[in-house]
Amino acid sequence: MVKPTTITWLADVLVSEEDGLSQVVAKYKELTGITLDITKPAHNQYMEKVDLTFATGEAPDVVYIPDATYMQRYAGNGALVNLNDWYVKYGLDKKFDNKIMDGTQVNGGLYIIPYTGGNGTLTYYRGDWLKELGMQPPKTYDEFIAMLRGFKKIHPEAVPYTAPGIIQSEFPTYIYTVEFFQDAVPDYTKINGKWVDGIQQPNMRAAMERWRSAFAEGLIDKDIVTNNTSAAREKIYAQTAAVMNYWAGPWHQQFNQNLRKNNPNGAMDPLPAIKGVTYFDRVALGSAITRNSKNPEGVFKYFLGGMFDEGPLQMLFTHGVEGIHYKMEGGKLVKLPSLSNPAFTNASGTYIKPELTVAPWAKDPYELPQAIMPSFNIFRATAVPAILPPLSAANERFGADILVARKKFLADVVYGNAAFDAALAAYKTSVGAQVDQVLADYNK
After folding, report:
1. Among 47, 146, 341, 383, whose CB has the most other CB atoms within 10 angstroms?
2. CA-to-CA distance for 105 and 215, rounded, in angstroms?
3. How far is 73 from 82, CA to CA, in rounded Å?
4. Are 148 and 214 in contact (CB under 8 A)?
5. pLDDT digits over 9-46, tens only?
6. Measured between alpha carbons, how far is 5 from 436 in angstroms, rounded to an integer?
7. Residue 422 β-bridge partners
8. In angstroms, rounded to a whole number, what is the distance separating the alpha carbons of residues 442 and 396?
């Protein structure tokens, strides 16, 4: 194994160029002598870029894996390098939270090094509007709907509830819309030890009635099917929407910082899970070394594993460059204003997330801001681990078509284009046989 001269990385959740990515790259070369060549597509194009990269055989040394199903897919088809031996050889097994790491295994192999613990989403609502109504935070679905109705009454210019889709491709597919699904699962789910299709379970009928009724009443964003995450967030900032489920922690602070540009008194508050609703702690995500790498152990030692050195590389990939992203005062790290938006201070990391580190670092000089803690505390108190289905050759073959059919079923019912039974029959005709093949794989 020799020290690499250049490492290529396809990345997503990383500090932007406008906020000092080039300075991070320069500092990495200063510390290691290695050139870090980063490709960072637009966030909403990233999954497509990952698929294209592997399909064309042009994968770089390292790829950020955006979702647990992608980890399964590309580990299962041999596109990723098993990191187990180097994880132990270079001592990461002594640094990492192995309970988190156990959840990242694919058939006993370790294929990613997480940049963060799993984390997950919870629901945020306009706390100032709720005070205006004289109401308490909802604890049941009926109270949740009453809150949405109240928001619509006092602020008719805004839609009460928005989300980036009814479901989406990331796992779990419905984390952003749990209040309406409740115990129904618009995906595969395990019941009494057996994997089943949640769309075809009896409780889906009641869930779709909740959706259809709330949408017909004007409580749900009419653009919910076409929204991506940024479009939904912008509606919160612009005060054209009042409730949205999104990531715990720094996003709580970011919601409020961006909202208060338009309303200094606005407040997005985190909501404890209402009765019947579960918040999910998703499988930890991170970056993988691809089979295309000519020097995978060198890439691991000097980059993917090396960034957890409890020293200058961990400082760089967690907090950035001194004088650009932070300053030191009295032995404590103080975040500096964003380069692209001086009114905003990013509490999260350059890449490694200090608020959700998988490798606790006793010498980290940074104290997490109190502004991000309420949502974390609520999430951690109630979240349950998301259970990833097994590998399935049928799901690799048919998964995209099944997801499209599920989205169509859900949209047809929510928008009133079809009655529940007709939409379900169309779904079964479209992909029922393929779903059965996936379930046969899962239940072997």
Report:
1. 383
2. 40
3. 14
4. yes
5. 999 989 999 999 999 999 999 999 999 999 999 988 99
6. 49
7. none
8. 12
